[in-house]
Amino acid sequence: MTIKASDLLKYDITPFLFGVLYSRIMPKPTDDSNPKHFYVYTAFRTSKAVLKTAFSLSKYASRLVQQYNSLSGYPNWEIHKSSDNAIDLRLYIQNDLNIDAAQFYNLVYKKLRSSTWLNTATINEDKKYFLRGYMESRGSVDTSLKLFAQDYFYNNRFELKRVQLLTDDIGLPISYANFNPRNMQPQFVSGENKRNAQFRINLFYYAKEIGFINEYKALIFEKAYKPRARIARDGIIYFQISVPNLNSHVAFIKYINFFTNNIYDKVLTPEKVGILRKQIGFNTSQELGQPYRNKSIVDLFDELSEDKCALCGTSQTFKKKANGRQSFEIHHMIPFHNGQEFDNIANFVKLCPTCHRSLKRGSASKDDQIRSIITILGRHPEVFEYTSSALGIEELPKLAEEIWSLLG
Ligand SMILES: [Zn+2]
Q1: What is the Å distance from ligand 1's center to 316 Cα?
Q2: Where are any strands of DSSP class E within 14-120?
Q3: pTM, whole model, 2 decimals?
Q4: Which residues pair with 351 in a beta bridge?
Q5: In angstroms, rounded to a whole number, what is the distance separating the alpha carbons of residues 24 and 27?
Q6: Span 325-356, pLDDT tens digits
Q7: Of all helices (H) and strands (E), which one includes residue 199?
Q8: 3-state secondary structure of 349
């Protein structure tokens, strides 16, 4: 018996299974938009760090199925492939709702958001199980970069929000999270190497604070780093090892928003990539913990965004003496005085001086200002998505009214 999508959504989903679902949902058949089934999976290959004689992957497959069954609360995981080189397990879900994978994903996401264990300030055990499901189903231990990495698939802007859930709601420290949009690498643009973006967690942090459920991945870590001690508790393997101190707190979220606005779904020429890399402070080996370039995020946005008013649409104002460019001003959609976190690229729009003035508190009637806010949000879905998720309001008129009430 396969699980029905409607049943899965009706009953409790374990934090672990939420993590697996959140990582990736595949349609089956793959090219069908309303497929008969969805599936989630865990798949990994042998690592050079572990001798083949030291661990039999083919024997491990059946143990791993049992572990996944018990962590998921469904006895339906099956071995799709297993050999001495690789394991691939799947959990099939019958698409009795007759929806596409994105719709199913959104339903899972909504249910996840209503989970009570998500609403705690600290990173509790449920959240850790979520992270284990999320990272270990598809993540691989990158021993050269000391990162736990997984390909990050996204077909729409909504899916980019996944990363923010991991830091904002799950409580993964931003300094240990890392987003690597490989489509910014020159090899991607030239077509040599079309690899996906990756989401990565500092490997030492994971090994010490979250802990592995996958024995093989734990063994890779152990062989590569020879930690002081291995601690197994409730089927989780932790390692005693010192975690590097990293503090790049703002960089990650700014970066993901920069990515959303400037890179996602844009056709990039090698020249444009060069400019972007320079502007965001990249050099050839951008890795964890590197300080964000000093240039303010407002200046960066000013430079990169088109000189066009987000409200009236004009591209002609007057020439600025300093650089000869047309004069525009950067407006915080949710005003900056409401909190440091709103100094965020996804919260910015470019306005002509007249429109900017018209949005100052009291400079025009409430109705006019709300209408202007609705116009801006309607024309800029990325700003709508950011402000909507930041303020927790989904309906456009309500959101506009709330933004109006926050005007400075
Ligand atoms: Zn204007």
Answers
A1: 9
A2: 26-28, 37-45, 78-82, 86-94
A3: 0.69
A4: 329
A5: 10
A6: 889 999 999 987 766 667 677 788 999 999 99
A7: strand 197-202
A8: strand
